[in-house]
Amino acid sequence: MRTHRTAPRTVIWAGRAFTLLAAALWFAQGFLPMVGRGTFSESTTLDLVRMDLDGRLGGLLPDGISVLLLTTPVAALVLVALAPWGGRGAGWARGAVVVIGATVAVLQAVVVTGGEWARIGPGAWCALVGAGAAVLGLVLCVRDRVLDRREPVPSSAGALTSGE
């Protein structure tokens, strides 16, 4: 007898798969150029971090941009570390990492390209698509948790067999 409206296990696995896809995209972003054309178009995200730490950006990007650029690859590693864990604590941690990572991914694309969407490179696209995948994965996982907390639903099979 079914007592709760629960999402099928495939919804849970789909949510986690989208979260891991986001992690893969955010990690790959570190090895790709954030800018498609113009200044920094030949520099990967990690190159920009090295230039910032060496002080070679010369005011072209804000000081301390390396913290912003390293947030999504670090978030990717945390998401992969949290992937096998279930439960409420891991869910909250995963949600916090997704929200922070998705927000920072959008900020990275805006700051590095100067808001010129025509200059978005493969690294920025990975960050943005990863943000979308992470949010979708979070929504699927949260949807499943919300459905699990609803009131029990009477079974229609019991009504048919009782002769009513």
Can you give a write-up of this model?
It is built from 6 helices and no strands. It is an all-alpha fold. The protein has one domain. α1 packs antiparallel against α3 (65-82). The chain is elongated. It starts with 8 loop residues before the first helix and ends with a helix. Keywords: Membrane, Transmembrane, Transmembrane helix. The chain crosses the membrane at residues 65-85, 92-114, 120-142.
Q: Notable features of this structure?
A:
transmembrane, single chain, 164 residues, mainly alpha, elongated, transmembrane helix, membrane
Give the proportion of residues in helices: 55-70%
Order of helices and strands: HHHHHH
What is the domain total for the residues? 1
Which whole number gives the mean pLDDT?
Answer: 81
What is shown here, in short?
Keywords: Membrane, Transmembrane, Transmembrane helix. The chain crosses the membrane at residues 65-85, 92-114, 120-142. With 164 residues, the chain is an all-alpha fold.
